[in-house]
Amino acid sequence: MTDLQRRAFLKSSALAMTAALLGASSRLSATTPKARILVVGGGFGGAIAAKYLGMADPDLRVTLVEKEPVFISCPMSNEVLSGERDLKDLTFGYRGLTRQGIAVVQDEIVEIDPVQHFARGASGNRYNYDKLILSPGVGYRWDAIEGLSEAVSERYPHAWKAGPQTLTLRRQLEAMEDGGVFAIVAPPNPFRCPPGPYERAAQVAQYFKRHKPNSKILILDAKDAFSKQGLFQAGWKQHYGEMIEWVPAAGGGTVEAIHPDSGTLVGEVEEYRGDVISLIPHQKAGAIAERAGLTDATGWCPVDQQTFASSLHPDIHVIGDACIAGAMPKSGYSANSQGKVCAAAIVAAIHGNAPPEPSYVNTCYSLIAPDHGISVAGVYALDNGRIQEIAGAGGVSPMDADARYRAVEARFAHDWFRNITADMFT
């Protein structure tokens, strides 16, 4: 399947999912009583779930609680490091949702009581609900690497939540002398945005090529393979020569400790030093999910993969990076797709109907150079209660594509970003 065919298939799948959601609302009785739906987290999953709930049934009382005043997108934030994009281009407000009747509250949820059906904010406010959608993103396993802590991460920024750490990392790269080493520590699976560390290497290499051509990039990886690996490595070589070195787990790339004062990374075989270090921690579900008793031994949230209702507390639905979603990766587009499926299931349940047959999609673009984009896409279906990828419906960019094809995919990447954020916030 070509990239253009994949895009058409993904678009038709998304339209079918939206039609199922909105079609369900047309069959609802106008006398159906309201239900209180609380959405916690205003990112790729939560914002879209809130919007589509309101679209499906204006009589629902939908409240979105988000601790930040604005949303800053992690997808495309690596372009801030190359200088191709400014952080303000990734920043979105919630006025579009409020114009559609969604109550948007800035607060941090610190407690969820699944028995009494309420959540409490750091403000002291109590939020009662009939159904809750939790989209908390990821948390970090600070104890997985000796010497790492939240405070240390401010010095060696992961920037895996776009915002201040993205700018810190950019300033550190600007201050680094030409000929220095930028080290990226890539975490084990599963983690948010599987291609992200490798796109980061490419975007920083783009900056180095222009401004610090004698510098090097070292990727220390806890894995022996990564998403779109062949495409990335070919693109690195084409544009940046030998500037980027990847050390897999089998080659000693797993980092076991960091000495913060010296910036020394202790691997299984040898020690490494970086003049600038982006240490991306091991990950788990966001902290509120753990506090609410929604995680299992893996650190992630088990759910009914048809409705995203928690396997532990069924009136709470968990979507996005925090949930265990079968074959779907932890990505912004996956969260968007899950938010729509979850909204449709909740609307159906409130009105006594069976959930519609779900369809799930994901697509992820990565930028190796300004005119060199690559992608991976997938379409998924429910099979015996588990989300499985439909063979042949997705795929990755062809290895032998020419420069024009790569440039088209780079343009598609920016179109994808404009489209998904418009869907969320307008």
UniProtKB/TrEMBL annotation:
The keyword Oxidoreductase applies. Keywords: FAD, Flavoprotein, Oxidoreductase, Signal. Residues 36-150 form the FAD/NAD(P)-binding domain. The keyword Signal applies. One of its GO terms (molecular function) is sulfide dehydrogenase activity. It holds the Pfam family Pyr_redox_2. InterPro entries: FAD/NAD-bd_sf, FAD/NAD-binding_dom, FAD/NAD-linked_Rdtase_dimer_sf, FCSD_central, FlavoCytC_S_DH_flav-bd, FlavoCytC_S_DH_flav-bd_sf, SQRD, TAT_signal. Residues 1-30 form the signal peptide. Residues 166-281 form the Sulfide dehydrogenase [flavocytochrome c] flavoprotein chain central domain. Residues 356-425 form the Flavocytochrome c sulphide dehydrogenase flavin-binding domain. Its EC number is 1.8.2.3. It is an enzyme of class 1 (oxidoreductase). This is NADH dehydrogenase, FAD-containing subunit. It comes from Thiocystis violascens (strain ATCC 17096 / DSM 198 / 6111) (Chromatium violascens).
